[in-house]
Each structure stands twice: as C-alpha cells, then as structure tokens.
Amino acid sequence: MRAAASILHLDLDAFYASVEQLLDPSLRGRPVVVGGLGRRGVVSAASYEARPYGVQSAMPMAHAAARMSHAVFLAPRFGEYERFSASVMEILRSITPLVEPISLDEAFLDVAGARRRLGDGPTIAAYARRRIRDEVGLVASVGVATTKFLAKIASDLSKPDGLLVVEPGARTRSSIRYPLGRLWGVGPATLARLEGLGVRTVGDVARLPEEALVNRARCGARNSSLATRAQHRRA
Question: What is the pTM of this model?
Fold first, then answer.
C-alpha cells in the first residue's frame, strides 16, 4: 500500500445532462433526462434535479416519464459529449501523464509524481475540480485514496460535487454501508452468490469469515463450469 493517498478517481457529475444544461442555459435548474426517446429507450443520464423523483441511469425511459412528465427529455448528442470529455482529459493530462480514462466522464489519475509541483493528493484533486469548473463549466466529484478501488468508492460517496479522501489505513463510516451492487467488478452473478450469504454491503463482507467467502467463490466457479459443460453437451 502507498504511504500517501495519491490515486484519484474523477467522475463528472450527471455528465450528459450537465453538458445539455451547459449548452442550453434555459435548462439549468430544471430536471433533464437524456436517453433513448423510443418506446424501448433507457435513461443514459439524469440531472440532479431529476434524482428526487427516483429517475436514474439504466431505467426505462417510459418509467422516467411516468414519474415526472414535466422533465425535459433529450436524445443523446455523443459528439458534444466527446468534445467536452476531451477538454476535461486535456486538463487531467496537464496535471499528470498517468491518466487512465474509463469512459467519457471518468478517469483514474496517479499524481504521486506531481506532488512536488502541485501538492499532495487532496490538494491536486481540489485543483483539478477547480480547473474543470472554471475552464469547462462542468462539476466533478473526486475520490482520493491509496488504491484505485478505494478511490472509486470515495468518488461515488462524495457525489454530487464533492471530494472525499481515504487516508492510508483508514476507512469511512459510510463505506461500511456501501451497497455491493455498486462495487467496481461485482457483476450480477457475484452479487447473487454474496446475497445468498446474507451479504449486501461492504460492511457485511468485512464481518464475514474469509473461509466462507472463498468457499462460496469456489462453489460458484464450479457450478459455472458444470453449466458450461452441460451446454456444450446439449450443443
């Protein structure tokens, strides 16, 4: 583990919806939902004004419209989102060459080599947030930690418009209640196996004996292998 928190995870808040509000000032302060407008469309992004109504990404657009018919519903404009993303990534690469984009609206940064020039991890995170707001007009939430995994959890917990630092050896009280389904790398199959053990949060995992987790993982892998073999025999 690193001696200092120098891994950042930066996530642009409600990115698609925020870009639309930036391009059209009349949308600022209004609930904006971006996604497919057809009968089977899904929500790609919802502004924070839409969140109190329970509208969130991956929700069927029809359900979102039923919850708040007064919202502004827009089709995605990926060319614009790519343009804004490029501006943000340019700022990040001016801070450190060690930038790992995950998608248009989020990236990891290793700022250990920039500390002498710009300060420690939290100082650099605040600097990046300020530059993105001033130069691009967007809001970013940032997690700072000693690992990518913790930094990503921290950025999620800091939303919206926040900055959360996890110092070496520390853990936040809120992370104990963090839902497993939102953990990076936990897919539906893994989540189902863990829920079978009564595990639903990070805190539940921490309290579970390591042996129980390992045995459940082995059992899941063995069942998956047997299912694959059965499919091959049927084919």
Answer: 0.77
